Amino acid sequence: MTTTTTGTENPVRTYGNWAVPVSPGLFGLGTLGTVLIFVGLAATVLVQLGRGWVWAGVVLVLFLLVIGGIAKKNRAGRNVWQTSTTRVAWWRGKRKRQHLYLAGTVAPVAFGAARLPGLLARSELFLAQSSTGEHFALLSMPSARHYAVVLRCEPEGSQLVDQDTVDTWVALFGRFLADLAHEPGLEACSVTVETAPDPGTRLAAEIHRQIDPSSPALAQAMLREAAATFPSGSASVRAWVTLTFTARRSATVEDETPLRKGRRAKVSKDAQAVLDLTALERGHDPAAGTDDEDLPSMLPAPAAKPKGVRTAREMAEQIGQRLPGLVAQLRGTGAGAVRAMTPTELAETVRVAYDPAAALALEQAHAAGEDSGVTWETAGPMAQVESWGALRHESAASITWAAISPPAGAVQSSVLGRLLAPHPGLSRKRVTFVYRPFDPATAARIADEAVKTANTVATARRGQPGAADTLALSAARQTAAEQAAGAGLVRQAVLVTATVDDPAQLPAAAEAVDQLGGASRLRLRRCYGSQAASFAAALGVGVVLPKHVVMPDVFRNAL
């Protein structure tokens, strides 16, 4: 992202230079298509020499069909084979009834009463502690070997705030993303902004608590009327930031000695002090060693693990040591008071996302100071039905979109204002921004390759290069210069989920989101055939979709 200013007296800062990665190749086919061209020609020649012209023609036609499917793309930039595999995968999943989910006593789910469906089915939630003593929820996703921590924010908003302050917040957030590239093991960072109707229970509880019985009756009546009427039509805005870490060790990190029978795992001094204190509280002698039952119950006991993969305890210790610094840096970006969510808060957030009707009961329990009783094992829906373009879950229905292209040209910091603001036609809306930073070495290589690719495309034409090619080359050179000067390079995605109480309201909600996307200069495309997975990713709990697909990044980037 590039920052520019316009004017002299009142400079307006704009942002742009987003680039969609382009794979170099002949005739716009990309690297994979170009390789298939040469492989097809070589195979045709070899078959002609060995079997004759007829079989050579058959091989040539087959390769042309494959290459033609790669070359033909729709408006979203997906080729024929990508769209075809999506439809085939959806058809096979529906035939196996994988689009249906039932929980409870009559459900075929054997591992829980109301577990989360889909990509979050095997997830586990632990209680961990940071180096400053703050407890936080640590979400484990064994299918991708990811661990996520969710930070709750209280955004200050841009109203009644000077533009210079807003520009400073944007610059600091950019620096925050750039610094994430230096965080070992960090896989992704997501920012989620959710708007929903405000039930007003917290306001009513606060007013009733503050009312003085000896005050005039008219004043008491006015306060009670305000508590009853103010929440009508109002909306609440919540935001949280999720940091997702991988448990896989990098190639430069030496693996620890695997656990053997009769040998205990090594722990740090701080962790050993906690274990010794626990043993003393239970009346045991710390010098005699600590049994496995003395370990904190929220994290699994050490066990033999796959080579090159950290355990949950190691991840909790590693994240806990770095969390205070990340929280302090995030506070300067306009995020307000930032703190890590507890397991109960995270479970309640996911519970309300799948069942919006439960929000009022949870708010009433909080206002009364009672425990909601929601755990991660009971945060899922009792029923969920996925269709080709929508998702029906519990008491609501949702549609999820994904941005297929960045804004064209330069934009100002308020470009996403309408998309993030509450909308009267949407009961609940979540906008999630996913950032996947490149490490400095990879970022430098990608920036240099982008310059080479743009230069090749600009000089491939005969005569004067086109204006679009010239602009692309200029943008690539500017990106490479900024990256060399210390800027970060991230992959970004935008997911938008609109939730309504009645499935009959889905067409109106879809039209409203399309208008909001256009006002924000984003091209949104409905996630056909993957509504359940996209809904889980848009929750902002650490699901990184590219790590859950069959095709590796190296092949998808080469298309």
TrEMBL record:
Region of interest: Disordered: 281-305
Coiled-coil stretches noted in the UniProt entry, renumbered to this chain: none
Keywords of this entry: Membrane, Transmembrane, Transmembrane helix
Annotated InterPro entries: SCO6880-like
Membrane-spanning ranges: 26-47, 53-71, 100-120
Protein name in UniProt: Integral membrane protein
